[in-house]
Amino acid sequence: MKENNYSPVLADFMARVRKVKKTRWVRFLVVSAIFVGWVAWLGSWWVLIFLPLLFDIYITGYIPFTWWKRSKNAAVRTVMSWVDAIIYALILVYFVFTFIGQNYEIPSSSLEKSLLVGDYLMVNKMAYGPRVPMTPVHFPLVQNTFPIINTKSYLDSPQWDYKRLKGFGQVKTGDIVVFNFPAGDTVALKVQNPDYYTLVKMFGRKAINMNKDQFGEVIYRPVDRRENYVKRAVGLPGERIKIVDGEIYINGEKQPMPADAQFAYYYQTPSRLTEQQWEEFGIAVDDRVEVPVSESEIPGIRALGFKVNPDGTVPPIYLSPLTAAMVEKMEASPAVIKLMKQPAPQGEMLFPEGASKNWTRADYGELWIPKKNTAIRLTPATWDIYNRCIRNYEGHHDAYLGEDGKVYIDGKAQDYYTFQMDYYFMMGDNRDNSLDSRYWGFVPEDHIVGKPMRVLMSFDKDKGLFNGKIRWDRILKDANGGF
Question: Which of 74, 112, 258, 379 is 20 to 30 A away from residue 456, measured at CA?
Answer without folding.
Answer: 258
